[in-house]
Amino acid sequence: MPLRRVGILTGGGDCAGLNAVLRAVTRCAISRYGATVLGVADGFEGLLDEPRTVSLTSAMVKGLLARGGTILGSSNKGDPFAYKTVENGRVTTADRSDEALANLRDLELDVLFVVGGDGTNAVGNKFFLRGAPIIGIPKTIDNDLGATDITFGFDSAVNIVVEAIDRLQTTAQSHHRVMIVETMGRNAGWIALQAGLAGGADVILIPEIPWRVETIVRAIQARKKLGRNFTIVCVAEGAKPDGGEACVRELVPDSAEPVRLGGIGDRLAGWLERYDVGECRATVLGHVQRGGAPTAFDRNLCTRLGAFAVHTAARGEFGTMVALQNNRLIATPLAEAIKQIRLVDPAGEWVRAARDTGVCFGDG
Amino acid sequence: MPLRRVGILTGGGDCAGLNAVLRAVTRCAISRYGATVLGVADGFEGLLDEPRTVSLTSAMVKGLLARGGTILGSSNKGDPFAYKTVENGRVTTADRSDEALANLRDLELDVLFVVGGDGTNAVGNKFFLRGAPIIGIPKTIDNDLGATDITFGFDSAVNIVVEAIDRLQTTAQSHHRVMIVETMGRNAGWIALQAGLAGGADVILIPEIPWRVETIVRAIQARKKLGRNFTIVCVAEGAKPDGGEACVRELVPDSAEPVRLGGIGDRLAGWLERYDVGECRATVLGHVQRGGAPTAFDRNLCTRLGAFAVHTAARGEFGTMVALQNNRLIATPLAEAIKQIRLVDPAGEWVRAARDTGVCFGDG
Amino acid sequence: MPLRRVGILTGGGDCAGLNAVLRAVTRCAISRYGATVLGVADGFEGLLDEPRTVSLTSAMVKGLLARGGTILGSSNKGDPFAYKTVENGRVTTADRSDEALANLRDLELDVLFVVGGDGTNAVGNKFFLRGAPIIGIPKTIDNDLGATDITFGFDSAVNIVVEAIDRLQTTAQSHHRVMIVETMGRNAGWIALQAGLAGGADVILIPEIPWRVETIVRAIQARKKLGRNFTIVCVAEGAKPDGGEACVRELVPDSAEPVRLGGIGDRLAGWLERYDVGECRATVLGHVQRGGAPTAFDRNLCTRLGAFAVHTAARGEFGTMVALQNNRLIATPLAEAIKQIRLVDPAGEWVRAARDTGVCFGDG
Amino acid sequence: MPLRRVGILTGGGDCAGLNAVLRAVTRCAISRYGATVLGVADGFEGLLDEPRTVSLTSAMVKGLLARGGTILGSSNKGDPFAYKTVENGRVTTADRSDEALANLRDLELDVLFVVGGDGTNAVGNKFFLRGAPIIGIPKTIDNDLGATDITFGFDSAVNIVVEAIDRLQTTAQSHHRVMIVETMGRNAGWIALQAGLAGGADVILIPEIPWRVETIVRAIQARKKLGRNFTIVCVAEGAKPDGGEACVRELVPDSAEPVRLGGIGDRLAGWLERYDVGECRATVLGHVQRGGAPTAFDRNLCTRLGAFAVHTAARGEFGTMVALQNNRLIATPLAEAIKQIRLVDPAGEWVRAARDTGVCFGDG
To answer: Looking at chain A, which residues constitute the CATH 3.40.50.460 domain(s)?
Structure first.
């Protein structure tokens, strides 16, 4: 199938590697198929109103391999099937999919690549079901897409967190402190698990394993008995203490106006200090985990996925998502791909290896 | 003057380079003077009760050049002239300087190097006035000691913050966000100023320049008009908004128990969001700024200061602090050294260069 | 099967992650099986003469996760089945396997883990065939072991090379130069391929694909026509030009004494300059690729392999090598594991993705 | 003096920070003086024939702070007073200064900033003496300009070398090897000295201190006696052995065609191996030292120099070079600035501190 006009958009939160995908798709589509490539700005949002597109040429994608973020911009609110508007503090939702589809048709694309997580790919699938030639390219910093062994951006994020933990190790040792580093991961604890394990964290707290403050306190005290007067805790932002709601309420007094509380890292520091374990300090890396130059692994995964996606389009396999399974690139049905989420298995080999080498998960 | 027994302790907060000082002092004292070197554990605290010391040999200091923290440990509470004890939540203060001096005399040191900031050096000076052969070695991550052009640990901290800002640049651009990075610096804004300037921050907030939230909002809006839909703010932890107390009270409702609020970074995010400037996210690097391998500059400054301090001791110049002034190492009286603090000059060349290249300081 | 005494040695060239394996094996064997752990110094060499071993305790392996190299030391010459001695410039070879086996028996180990590449594992297999309880742990910086999807140290090496290429990009662009970076890889081109692809190299030369200087010259000239006045070449040390022998002889005049020529990087620079393509400069990273802190991926692979190897020993599965296959850890027969080498497939997906995005391999 | 049209060019070898200077000059000239800014391409070369200039706007310099190299390009051959042409292998030199001056006049610049080393600034001075409004901005990666305490690019280069030495430390220790790292520095040994000292090199060889292979061999053997079976040597490319010419001739047999020998690093490896000190391996970082994102220090020095240079132009102080002296920015006469070169003082404090902490310089 000839590829003459190729479109691509990036949706959801950004992460390292998006630009590398844009570069690979553009280079491969131009050199292998003589196609022209159109970038849609700001995710699906760019398909509404007057569609905003930019022509992607070889010159445009020069130097993108090492550059974080996405030159196309991204958007979280732009689902055309449930488009949100905020007016005077009130949120209204409208179905603008017809408008988006009409605009998409006017662009006369042979394929539209949607690069994003489960949200973006689910919207992509709806467009596909309405007749649009969609191919998904998976992206989640949390690495929790079930259909692919790993998503780009994840390796970069993990290495950034490990670098931070490496630094905290020396200062924790010097000062006999409890150091807490809060990582991304609302539902899946992969970043906290892999970064904590690689950084040599003593305690790792993830959404998949219920934990108690008291268990952490005991682990800190056990370390002190062995002469180790410091402890490193790596906690995923979505990790919730068992019975934690009570704790939270205790901290937030009744108030007319909501208090902007710190995240779980700050709150855990407060809880632990009540148990007299010494000074506790939190580091919140936040969006630092999303930015900067991707690791070699992420860059290459992006290049491979991008080139493979173009060939997949040339074969006419729409309604699919490209993915890495057992070291091989495949195209899997979008409808399947968005069904499953991949969480850390509390009884799996990763958690066992962590426990085998001394990591406490706050349970038990 | 012969150097037979050399002592050294590290006090106050740790920072990159302390171990490199220990290495240089140990190597120089051994190879140049045939001395034995004793490390005192946990700052001045190690001089109380049964003094805790460790023999520093060439083998002991191997590999310390690149290692963050201090193998001697440090302590914040250990001023023997005003030693704090917490019992049942009540803090009592006692003068234990006689005990410390007696222990110090028993160690029969020809010199005691105290590596620390103004607090540590002030205590060192009191010991000197009581007859102890003290030489100070300056250390503050904030770079605010008046007697020396620069202190080690500072260059490392600045580079760590710049790396974080570099990462935030790409994600801020992709998402049209306001990104806030909170740095160390309670009284002096040097880290925020130099890291913000090097990272290309659009707004820099430091304790030395009063700022207003509204001015920042205007800067964000002015950028939007130029098509720049993102803003990077670099704020020192000690930077306080003009009239900020009111803001803080507004956020903290009456409550029996104190709420553990986030730092200025989190609070600024909350304040800005009320002005409808879009999503605001804070990154709090915390102690990550203190840890890890020092930069080349810091390592070399430590090596030079350490070797110079040993020679200063051999010349019998006690009651001094070694320092870097106009690219030359000197020994300056401790009594003088602790008098002056070096703040950012709001009308100085650094701030002007920042304004010349587009930085907003939140004033005006 | 009870594990009471566990031995471990590291053989062959070092790479990032060896220490992390030592840490994982030690921690897991102690905490899960109450075993004592013995490290054998300097590879198989440590089993000869008076065996040199060191007790590995929890304290000994503290901080090893992030530390490059191997605290046990390694050796290239120590194959006891063909032990080489150099005397007066003459190399003699002796079979000292009986001696090594006797020493090994005296150590009363329940298992000996041999961490190494195909050479080390082949020797391990010979010991196993003579009755020793051997389990192999794969390590090659070149990633060319057929039995495992990836070996530790490789990801770290690739990222180091990419960092260097990233730096060369800016200087090449500023000066209209040809920049050559020579990587490790005598037989397999994986490092050059993956680092070159991730770094955005324009030309990648590997042992698996025959290349000609003239083809590279044409690629450089083609780039110039597009206004790109610089070219980055990434070449594996083992990449040989088609008909290259002639070239080499041309450069090395008859001489009584062998000239210490530069590697392929330097020589390629010389060859290219004859074609008037402008200045050519080579960077030879050498052993920098082996050292320093491992990446997060490598650290975790080491921890997982180490813990898994201990459990494999407890199950009594000797004569095996632990490996990663399709994201799962397995134990595969040593005899099988050492049979296959994994080279880059010139027609495979990786090379195709590279060509799709514009990489020239010097062929055609 | 009003600044309406500002010109800038970058000459000589590139280094980290050039783009940051372009950004600062552009931003300051536009925002403070409402000037337009013209970049001259490829150094003085861009003033010949049809002058090649590019308009530098705020948008053009966006993101340049962290980007290595120079977007203007640079050239080594472009001295218009002695312009070199190569035809059929023959080099001819012509004075094309009248042409350049005429072109320069046509550009109607109020000032031309020349960013470069002593060569570039010397040419700049000649133009100034012929009436052009020149201001120099110092740049040498070698840090050997006498008129300024430090030049940008140097701190970045040193940190890159230190990172490499850090990596070599672990692999050298694991393998009992001699590791040699060759750094830039033809006449001045600052990079080798500061990087070697910061990296913990055991031997540092610089052009300013004559050294002998035998002395290095003795240092290696002395280390072995202390149980340290590895040695790190840091050698500046311009460091020549005492009586070294003989050594070189010995290695290069008579030959019709010149052999492309390795640099001093490779040759030193060969010389040392003759003394039976074990395996010697060289790492040649080459242009990696020039590239990549500048350190925080370099970025800020560039920003400050750039802004200060614009103000200097506005004050009409032409024929000067801006410089950093004792932490203050000044403008010093170009004629003076190019007179002095700053070498390492073999008897100075830096070398003494290195010797005090155990570094061997190969002398004695």
So the answer is: 156-290
Cβ separation D291–C167 shorter than 8 A: yes
H or E, element range at D305:
helix D296-314
List of residues 6+ apart from D295 with CB closer than 8 A: B159, B295, D16, D155, D156, D159
Alpha helical stretches, state H, chain A: 18-33, 97-106, 118-129, 154-175, 190-199, 213-225, 244-251, 264-273, 296-314, 334-337, 349-356
Q: What is the CATH number of domain D156-290?
A: 3.40.50.460
DSSP label of B286: G
Which residues between 57 and 96 in chain A have a beta carbon less than 8 angstroms from any beta carbon of chain B? 67-70, 73-74
User: Is the pLDDT assigned to residue A259 strictly greater than 50?
Assistant: no
**Residues C174, D74: C-beta atoms closer than 8 Å:** yes
Q: What is the DSSP string of C297-313?
A: HHHHHHHHHHHHHHHHH
Chains that touch B (3 or more CB pairs under 8 A): A, D
The shortest CB-CB distance from C167 to any of D68, D172, D260 is to D68
pLDDT digits (tens, 9 = 90+) for B136-170: 999 999 999 889 999 999 999 999 999 999 999 98
What's the ipTM?
Answer: 0.93
- Architecture of the domain delimited by B5-152+294-337: 3-Layer(aba) Sandwich (3.40)
CB atoms within 10 A of CB B1: 12
Domain with CATH 3.40.50.450 in chain A: 5-152+294-337
Cα-only R_g, chain B = 23
Annotation marks residue D142 as catalytic: yes
Between chains, do A358 and C31 touch, taking CB under 8 Å as contact? yes
Give the number of other Cβ atoms within 10 Å of residue A291's Cβ: 29
Q: Shortest CB distance from D327 goes to which of B149, B308, B352?
A: B149
Q: In a mutagenesis test of the B interface, which of D3, D297, D302 is the best target, namely the one with the most B β-carbons within 10 Å? A: D297
CB contacts under 8 A, C 16-35 vs A, are 23-24, 27-28, 31-32
Encode pLDDT of C244-266 as tens digits. 443 443 444 444 334 445 689 98
* A6–C contact, CB cutoff 8 A: no
Interface check for B225 against chain D (CB to CB < 8 A): the answer is no
- Which ranges in chain B are annotated with CATH 3.40.50.460? 155-290
Q: What is the pTM of this model?
A: 0.93
β-bridge mates for residue A233, sequence order: A180, A203
Query: Contact A321/A137 with Cβ under 8 angstroms?
Result: yes
The C-alpha of A263 sits at a distance from chain B's nearest C-alpha, in angstroms, of 9
Structure tokens at B309: 């301090």
Kindly determine whether residue A357 and residue C195, on different chains, have CB atoms separated by under 8 Å.
no
A200 close to B95: Cβ distance less than 8 angstroms: no
CA distance D305 to D198: 27
CATH entry, C155-290, from 3.40.50.460, 3.40.50.150, 3.10.350.10, 3.40.30.10: 3.40.50.460
pLDDT at residue B217, rounded to an integer: 96
- Given a cut of 60, whether residue C302 has pLDDT beyond it is yes
**Closest residue of A to C355, CA-based?**
A28
Terminal Cα distance for chain D, rounded? 58
Collapsing DSSP states into helix, strand and coil, what is residue B173? helix
Query: What are the tens digits of pLDDT across the range D79-126?
Result: 899 998 877 778 889 999 999 999 999 999 999 999 999 899 999 999
CA distance B361 to C20: 46
Q: Which of A70, A254, A256 sits opposite B174 (nearest CB)?
A: A70
Question: Which of A65, A234, A289, A344 to mutate against chain C (most C CBs within 10 Å)?
Answer: A65
Cβ contact A352–C299 (<8 Å):
no
Rounded to a whole number of angstroms, the distance from the CA of A323 to the nearest CA of chain B is 24
